[in-house]
Structures are given as C-alpha cells and as structure tokens.
Amino acid sequence: LNGLATLVTQGYAAAVPPLRAALEAFRRDDGGSPANDRWLWLACRVAADLWEHEIWDELATSGLRRAREAGALSVFPMSASYRAGVHVHAGEYAEASALLEEAYAVAQATHTALLVQARQMVAAWRGNEAQALELIEAGRPDATARGQGMALSMIECANAVLLNGLGRYDEALAPAQRACAQDDLSLYALSLVELIEAAVRTNRAELAATAFERLSERTRASGTDWALGLEARSRALLTDGPSAEPLYEEAVERLAHGRLAPHLARAQLVYGEWLRRKNRRLDAREQLRVAHDTFSRIGAEGFAERARRELSATGETARRRTDDTRSVLTAQEAQIARLARDGLSNPEIGAQLFISPRTVQYHLHKVFQKLDITS
C-alpha cells in the first residue's frame, strides 16, 4: 500500500523501490498466509507493471498451486487469469487458453466474477482476426456497463496488438489511444508500446514522441531487460539514420533474456523491416527468418504473416505454416492431454482441473480419436 500510495503521489520512479520490496516480501511468504493470498492478485499486477516477468511467474504459479491445493474455487479463476498472463508474454498461448477455459468454467459454476479479461489478448496475439474481434466487440459493452476500466483498457490494448500484428497501423491507432486513456496498473506501459508503433507507421511523429516520453520514464525506472528492450525497440522506431541500428541490436539482445519469445520476435521483425528499407536484403532476411520461425512456432499467425510478407519483399519465400494438432485439440483437451502425458491418473487430472474423472475420460477419448492414438 505504501508503494501504491507513492505511485499516486510521487510518480512511478519513486514507487519502484517500495513496490519491489513488497514483491520480495510476497516471494518470501511462499507458505501462503491467508491474508497474503487475498492480495496476491495485486502483487501479480505490480510485478507486471515493474516488468518483472520472472517474479510475476513465480507469484502467479505459487498462488495457482495454493488455490488448487486448498480447493479455493472463489480464488482460482483470478489466480488462473494472472498465470495465463505470464503464458501470453512467453508466447505459450495454448497453455494460457487452457487456464482461461478452466477459469471461466469454475467462475460460471461458482458464480464468481472474473476481474481480468484475458481471452481477447490471447486471441489478438494469435492473430485470429475473426475470433479476436468477436471477443473484443462482445467484451466492450459488458465492461462498459460494469464500469470495469481495467477490462476496457485490456480489450483496447488487445485490439491494438491484433491490428499492429496484421500491419493495419491506421486502424490500430485509435484503440491504442483508448488503451492509454488511463494509467492502469500493468497495462498502461504495454499500451504505450502499441501506440508508439502505430503512430510511427502512420507518420504521427509528435504523438509517438509523447508516448515514448511516457514509456521511457517507466522503463528506465524499472531497469529490467524486458523494460529496456521494449524501450530500445520503441526508440529505434522513432530514430532516423544509422543510429537506429544499435538500438535495434540492443532490443534483440535484451529481449533474448528470459521467456519473452513474442517480444523478442517483434524486435527482430521491426529490425528486419528497417534493414529491408535500407536495401540490406541479406541482413534483413536473417532477422525476418528468425522472427517468422518464432511466430509460426508459437502460433502468432498475424505477426507470422507480416514477417512472411517482408521476407517475400527481400526475394525469399517463406512457407505458411499449415494447421497442426495445436488447432485440432480444444484448449481443455490439450490441457488434459498434457497432464495425462505427465503421468497423472484420471482422478488426479480431475482433481486438478475441478472436473469429474468421467469427464476426463470423455475428453481423453476425444483426444485419442483426434490424434489417432489407439492405446
């Protein structure tokens, strides 16, 4: 509370030290006192706001484990949502989707309100335009009616991610601006990143520069590789001439640290785009090829297609990835299949996912059929 009060009264930079001290206190309390469990969702948001992906991962994993072990159905949906957010920034979209399906099933069964809407963000990163827009359009009026400002910011940020990924920067600009309308904990800075890219690509230099000034205040105060990597990428987009290249290189180097695959691939993508526009086709191919491979592997189809188009412009042909078993199984089927692969019995899987062993058996039967497994 001291850190959050400092954030309001003195600004982000002054709040970083007390908020980091708070996160360390939560990490030390791995046993999970009931009082701290009630605040863990807020600690996860603080970790995200400080660009501390590893701490966010640790806290969310610990909270989710304790919710499962205690059978705390009222806490589980929120814990699963924040854990899903960790997966999104790691490019682990199947895992995020599976957790969100669990969260929504439990929330419906227990009439628990979900405070974090993350399905739009997963769909946006995956680049499924029809599905993402359907979720965005459906979520916006509900969040407005409930007065959920954070949910609205996440929905608009997801819209900007989707459209930037598809290369439709003029359409991404408005939702990116709406996402930045209020300084939401854990969402504001990421929305600024989307706004900067959309503004640069649509020749809105003043808007991009203002957004970058706000972003850099936070990234410098944070000082993590995630923060400074995104700052370098954003500064490079704003920079003309050869001085941009060291910034692109810094972004790639910093984002290679940790589980930040989509952010690393985006840095490689914009670096490759810059190199191609400088007529350095061979150098551009190197960056674009790696970005395309990563986006294809993790299932970020919108960004993968954008990278493929850029590669084609250099004279190299990249194959579109065909659908594989990632899209054959539903998110819940994939989750159950992973647990079965790890050696859990049907009752153990059911206990972990809050479903009956008979339901597990039903889903595994469908998995076996879809994957042509006979035993």
Task: Jot down its keywords.
375 residues; 77% helix
How would you describe the overall organization of this protein?
This protein is mainly α and 375 residues long. It is built from 21 helices and no strands. The chain has helices at 2-10, 12-28, 34-49, 53-70, 76-90, 93-110, 119-126, 129-146, 149-165, 169-179, 188-201, 205-222, 225-238, 244-255, 261-277, 281-298, 301-313, 325-328, 331-341, 346-353, 357-370. α12 packs antiparallel against α13. It starts with a helix and ends in a 5-residue tail after the last helix. The mean pLDDT is 89.
Give the gist of this structure.
The chain has 21 helices and no strands. With 375 residues, it is mainly alpha-helical.
Distance between the termini: 54 Å
**Proportion of β residues?**
under 5%
Q: What proportion of the residues is helical, as a percent range? A: over 70%
- The rough form would be described as globular
For the biggest sheet, the summary is: none
Give the class from helix and strand content and strand pairing: mainly alpha
Gyration radius from CA atoms, angstroms = 21 Å
Q: How many separate helices? A: 21
